[in-house]
Amino acid sequence: MKKKCALFLVILGMCANNILAQSDNRIKNKKLIFNADMASGSLYTMAASSVLTGLVNYYVLHDAFFENSFMYGLYSTNDDNLSVMTMNPMGLTARELFNNLQVGLKLGYQSYTPNFVNAGIYASAHYKLEQFMVGYSDDNMQKHRAQRALFGVTGLLSLGSMQQASRVIVEAGLRYSMAVAYTSPNGDDREQLNDGLVSHYAIKLASRGMLQNIGVFADVNHFNLWKNLNPGRRLDGYTLGITWTITPQQVGDRKL
Amino acid sequence: MMSTKTMLVIATFVIVAPTTILADISERQILNKARNKVEDIYKELKVISDRNADPVKVSRIVSEFEDNFAANEVHCPNEFKSIWRENAGVAGYKDIRPDRYAFWFRDMFRSVDYLNCSFEYQTMLEHIVSDPRFDKKEAPAKYATVVMRKSYCRKNIPFAAFNDTLLVNVEKMQVIKWANSTSTHPIGYLGGEVLDLEQQMANAALAYSRKRYDEAYRIYRGIVDRQPKEGDPYYRMAVMLYKREYGRNMTKRDRNRLVLEYLDKAMQYGSYAVRGYANNMKYWLTC
């Protein structure tokens, strides 16, 4: 039942974005990259934010300002007895609804010519909240909550001419992840966390139609998330996700 | 000892020079093939015009004449309506199919009043034409235009002469357009020649591929001034304006307004492909 409900909300969110969105008839400055992106580890939160941001894009901003993503954190340790679990993306408790949350801004420049290849670069700043369970047995899992700030630079390549209905966007970037706060059974000291580099990769298909600018991304941490409180113990993590950009489209002009 | 800089320059030259030379050779080969193709057609016409030629050979050439042309949309100029006086039947036709051209050409030189007539031709010029697209890689040399000067002579004195322009598809080596001053859809004059739409488009494309953007834009503008329901030039002009290849002194507001106006017209009047291109471009610019 929960799955059906989640699926319904996801589809509703995507439909609302695409059906309601329309463009005003003027050339926009696409060379400036200025977007907010919102990612969540909960399907419900993601669906709700899709609907909300779609409406804001259409009615308030008249542009595709907000991007949405669903992300899923994966963790591994070098301690075979220790298990780390990601929160349930279908859960309905407050902790599960906000189990992973990332909001941020992107600012940059891209070429936007009719040529087949266009390139761009943007700087990004994100706040990330991630929660996970750590324990030696399934009955004894303890909650951990980390808050981080990420700053970085990402380059993108857009492949596809303007005369085509679709284009492929490839992104690769590097972000510096700084610990802001950490809550764990060991205390609330943020010094439990390491800072380090995170590489970001994404590939998106931007096209006209219902599923526009949809893609996948991966953020890979290149450092031990835990500082050396327990000597030799490592917590490695990476994040996988799907992302889509809410792009108002010209419903009236779609047919040829 | 050579410095690193010198070695780099030499290496660059070694890599770039052959590429450039090969590109030129390739273009020259394409032109030669197109010119040879057109000259072969005129050689066949010369054979047909010869009353002493083998009748079997002439019949074969006439029956196979249409093979030199693309299957669709080929219209040959009906110059016979102005030179073949005694046959009133030809005057009722506008442009004609290649098989009819060869048939009438043979019959004219075998009619009584033309027994002392001959056919002469001369290659005037040829050039490669690329469609103006966005990227060099997207604009392969698709067409070559060959201009031929042909004369109908009586006792070696020309009594009628025409400048034929033939557009050759260099991939298939077939003529896709053949026009002269007697063609039925001339829309303007350029360099003293009566040109039809395809020839103007070809000239604009040639100017574009040689980066003579002002000239290309002027030709496209001239086409739509005469043929307001011709969609393709609107699309080309929209692209040139957006890429700032034309109208660099325009304000951004005026240029953007024109780009959208032309894209709308291209979507309204363009061919199926151009309607799609314009529609997509408008989407990406305004979404």
Largest sheet of chain A: 9 strands, mixed, barrel
- How much of the sequence of chain A is in beta strands? over 45%
Distance separating the two termini of chain B = 59 Å
Topology pattern of chain A, helix = H, strand = E: HEHEEHEEEEEEE
Q: What is the CATH class designation of chain A?
A: Mainly Beta
Helix and strand string of chain B, N-terminal first? Answer: HHHHEEEEEEHHHHH
CATH topology of the largest domain in chain B: Nuclear Transport Factor 2, Chain: A
Structural class of the secondary elements of chain B? alpha+beta
Helical segment count of chain B: 9
Which pair of chains forms the biggest interface, and how many residues does each contribute?
A-B, 24 and 24 residues
Task: Please name the defining characteristics of this protein.
heterodimer, A: 256 residues, alpha+beta, Lipocalin, 9-stranded mixed β-barrel, 3 helices, B: 287 residues, Nuclear Transport Factor 2, Chain: A, 2 domains, 4-stranded antiparallel sheet, 9 helices, 6 strands, 20% strand
